[in-house]
Amino acid sequence: QVQLVESGGGLVQAGGSLRLSCSASRSIFSFNVMGWYRQAPGKQRELVASISSGGWTNYLDSVKGRFSISRDNAQNTVYLQMSSLKPEETAVYYCNKVPASTFWGQGTQVTVSS
């Protein structure tokens, strides 16, 4: 069964931090590059960060130095630690493999107030 369950979002003030978690089914997680995506209202979904099964990471330029992606291969879980959050980063955050599968979870809402 395909599964992607994101959690950890919420309301935070600008400059604050959040840690997102994503539990994925083994069929999606295993041996795949995993990523965190976000979609703001009226905008296209974008890839924010990705991590290979071996731990290589890549980030959107605008989040470098502030976001950190990690994964627990034993638990099929991927995390996104976000700090110094900005109001323009308000969005629904999703995890998926990279490139993304057609199946998406419900996402987790991150709202950054100014």
Question: Keywords for this structure?
Answer:
four-stranded antiparallel beta sheet, mainly beta, about 110 residues, globular, 1 helix, six-stranded mixed beta sheet
Draw up the topology in text.
Elements: E1 4-7, E2 10-13, E3 18-24, H1 26-29, E4 34-39, E5 46-51, E6 57-59, E7 67-72, E8 77-82, E9 91-97, E10 108-113
Task: Explain what the structure shows.
With 114 residues, the protein is mainly beta. Helix content is 4%, strand content 48%. It is built from one helix and ten strands; from the N terminus they run βββαβββββββ. The model has no long low-confidence stretch (mean pLDDT 95).
Q: What does the average pLDDT come to? A: 95
Name the beta content range: over 45%
Tally of individual helices: 1
Tell me the number of strands: 10
Major sheet characteristics = 6 strands, mixed
Q: What topology, given as strand order, has the largest sheet?
A: 2-10-9-4-5-6
Low-pLDDT stretches: none
